[in-house]
C-alpha cells in the first residue's frame, strides 16, 4: 500500500515539475495556444474559485497578458476578444495541430511541386547529356576519319616528293651523261685548218 502511495506521489510530483517547467516558459505575447485535446474553462480571476466566463477549445490561439505563479493561472485574451484566467499548465508555445495541418499540407504540396520540377529538370539534363554524348561519339568518328585521310594524304605527298626527286635526279643524270658523251665525241672530230692570211 505504501509503495502505491509512493508511486502516486512521485508521479504527481513529476507531473507538477513538468507543468512548472512549462509555466516558467510563458511570456506575455500572442504566440501561445491552448494545448491540443483539451477543453478548459476561463475564469474571472486567477483561481478555480472565480466565476467561469466560458470555455476554450483545444488549439485556440490566445494572447498571454500576465501570469500568477502562486496560483499557476495566466491571464489571457482569446480570439473572440474575451479576457480571463486559465490554468497555466494548459498553455503551450506550440501551434495546435489543427492550425499546423493546413500549413503542413501546403508545405507538402510545395515540396511535391518542387520535386516534380526537379525531376523534370533532371530528365531534361539527362536528355542533354545523352545528346552531348552522341555528338561526342559522332565527332570522334569524324575526327578518326579525318585523321586517317590526313595520314593517307601525307603518305601520298611524301611519295610524290620522292618520285619528283627521282625524276629530277634522272634528268640531271641524263643531262650530265649527255654532256660528257658530247664532250668525248667532239674530241674525235677533225679540226679545220685556218687559212693563212699572207698578202700576195
From TrEMBL:
Gene3D superfamilies the record matches: SH3 Domains
Entry annotated with the keyword Transcription: no
One term under GO cellular component: membrane
Localization annotation: Membrane
Coiled-coil regions listed: 108-149
Domain annotation SH3b: ranges: 29-95
Keywords: Coiled coil, Membrane, Signal, Transmembrane, Transmembrane helix
Signal sequence, renumbered to the chain: 1-19
Transmembrane regions: 168-189
Main location: membrane
Annotated membrane topology: Single-pass membrane protein
UniProt protein name: TIGR04211 family SH3 domain-containing protein
Organism of provenance: Alteromonas hispanica
Amino acid at each position: 500500500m505504501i509503495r502505491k502511495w509512493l508511486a502516486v506521489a512521485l508521479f504527481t510530483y513529476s507531473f507538477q515539475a513538468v507543468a512548472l517547467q512549462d509555466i516558467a516558459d510563458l511570456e506575455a505575447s500572442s504566440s501561445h495556444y491552448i494545448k491540443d485535446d483539451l477543453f478548459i474553462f476561463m475564469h474571472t480571476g486567477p483561481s478555480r474559485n472565480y466565476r467561469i466566463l466560458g470555455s476554450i477549445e483545444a488549439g485556440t490561439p490566445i494572447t498571454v497578458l500576465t501570469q500568477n505563479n502562486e496560483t499557476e493561472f495566466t491571464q489571457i485574451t482569446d480570439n473572440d476578444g474575451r479576457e480571463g484566467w486559465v490554468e497555466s499548465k494548459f498553455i503551450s508555445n506550440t501551434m495546435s495541430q489543427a492550425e499546423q495541418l493546413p500549413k503542413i499540407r501546403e508545405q507538402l504540396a510545395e515540396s511535391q511541386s518542387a520535386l516534380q520540377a526537379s525531376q523534370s529538370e533532371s530528365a531534361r539534363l539527362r536528355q542533354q547529356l545523352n545528346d552531348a554524348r552522341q555528338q561526342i561519339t559522332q565527332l570522334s568518328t569524324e575526327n578518326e576519319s579525318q585523321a586517317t585521310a590526313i595520314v593517307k594524304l601525307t603518305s601520298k605527298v611524301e611519295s610524290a616528293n620522292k618520285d619528283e626527286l627521282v625524276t629530277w635526279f634522272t634528268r640531271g643524270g641524263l643531262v650530265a651523261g649527255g654532256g660528257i658523251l658530247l664532250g668525248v665525241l667532239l674530241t674525235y672530230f677533225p679540226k679545220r685548218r685556218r687559212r693563212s692570211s699572207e698578202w700576195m
